[in-house]
Model the fold of this input.
Amino acid sequence: MPRPFSLSLIALICPWPAVAQQSAGHASAQAPIPPVPIFTASDTGDIVVIGTGLPLPPGTPAYGSVVIDRDRLTDEASGRVENVLKDVAGFQQFRRSDSRSANPSAQGVTLRSLGGNASSRTLVLLDGVPIADPFFGYVPFTALVGDRLGGARITRGGGSGPFGAGAVAGTIELVSATRRDLPFVSGDAFYGSDNAMSVSGNVSPDLGGGYATVSGRFERGDGFFTTPPSQRVGASARARYRDWSAGLRTVAPLDAETDLQFRGLLFGDNRTLRFTGADSSSQGQDASIRLVHRGTWQVDALAYVQARNFSNKVISATSFRLTLDQRNTPSTGIGGKIEIRPPVGPDHVLRIGVDARLAEGELFEDAYTGLAVTTRRNAGGKTSTAGLFVEDDWSIGNLILTGGVRGDRWTIADGFFRERSGTGLSTVNNNFADRDGFEGTGRVGALFHASDVVALRAAAYTGFRLPTLNELYRPFVVFPITTQANANLALEKLKGVEAGIDFKPARGVSIGLTAFYNRLDDAIANVTIAPNLRQRRNVDAIVAKGVELTADMRFGSVSFDAAYAFSDSKVLASGISAGLDGFTPAQSPRHSASATLGWAPVSGLALSATVRYVGAQFEDDLEKDVLRDALTVDATARLPVMKHVSIIGRVENLFDETVVTRNAGGSMDYGTPQTFWIGIRFN
Done:
């Protein structure tokens, strides 16, 4: 970026180095009553907010969730949802890179240091629909745009009940923006370092008694060198990216208590990582329909379909030629849910429902030696879950008891792996036996309002996760290390307990403290079995225990939000993986923290600074390679220039901290360096 431009943007931001956004724009500790109305069915009085789901049951705070509202989602220095979620200490992806410079398949999400591989152990929902890729389990973050969202609720710890399979490390519930959030026309445009640009917009007209939202975003950038200067070669390339997404959401009221919601999403994503020619791409087409009835008998019914694809080219770090072309990975996800809340009296909220998910996909890849194809591979299969759940929240004065059970039938079927030589000769033709089973899980919690100042909570839960098709059937290479798939992987099963206390010692001040113990049996890890060779295997367990602290403070025009998580996570292993016993899981930091301080003295003017810390963590299962800790500072400034128009300045990694995202025997990648943005927003 030209130096005068850089200096002018620093001058705009740095006079207030420790100030941050309007209080509504931050993560906050879960209060006994949900602190923002993004998940409720109505405002004060009898005004119904259409386009939402059913209201939260009163026992929800027993599981200690954190809320991020719309203002925070739309005002983040990087403009990326995954970085906003880092406000919740303990949130992590497999690598520290965001969706501009990471391989998409590494964008699995987990919480509480239950990591170890790139698959998501946290269930991510958008308007009740799981959004992870059906084959890989990664979250397509480039398709999630803050200005399309109304808020997010993050619940750390295992989920059962209505959440279904997959919520072994927690649940992230994203909700779309409703009509009250959206003007008729809104949009923004930004230009940033490394010739980056981002343009997005929404049009939200009223349609009868309902509304529609048409949205789009396009962004690109020449990117930065992820490779350290001392390790660059002629083939080293910047982390270029180019992605787009387009969405349509409609909400139509059928009567005073019922509305029908439709959401469609198209997206495409292209990235380059490390070397010229090391290109990846992902595409998706998603659609869902949802019926919400808020009458005496409440009903929430939805159905969805996902069509996704992924490709990836691996370039040798020695010859700098194409060694593997993962050219096609089509997958499909289909599912649905029906939840009914019958009237059982004013002291109970009873939820009864069923849900089901089916994922199927396969990969097509070619291995090269020199310019010749030496091996062609094709692998894939299907997985499914179908469950029944019952959950009840019982209010007894200041005490709320909540609990539920569910049963799931699961299948892993039609698995195969085929390999042919470059001339077409079959060399491997494996068909794997179908498997199925039944898992019973449950959760219980209690919330006691000791006073207007103090609330006590406790919870216990179990959960499970099926291995993804990626873990079962797809090998992958992060040169020079190859990781093999394993079609015999068992299910991961979680048991956990936690207890917490929420304080409101003064007006505008909320503080939450949680202590937890989670045990993930048969955890799937990338286990080293030879130099430069790993395989996905079940270890006996990963045990994580620790504490989480959240703080949310509002003093007039000043706001402060902070979160800290300490996770003592260990691998329990025996047999062929016994060498890992007592080790820390790969990619699992012990400490993480985030703090944002803000100032919004008048309407439209807002200044922000966010400090994030992530502790040291190991790159690999053998604890040989360390990713050192990192402290970064981001900042934003929003200045209104006329009615409905603001100028926005943003800076990521203000002090250009070196953030190591990969370390394989000293071969490293770095994360986002100091990055400046200037833009305009119309709202």
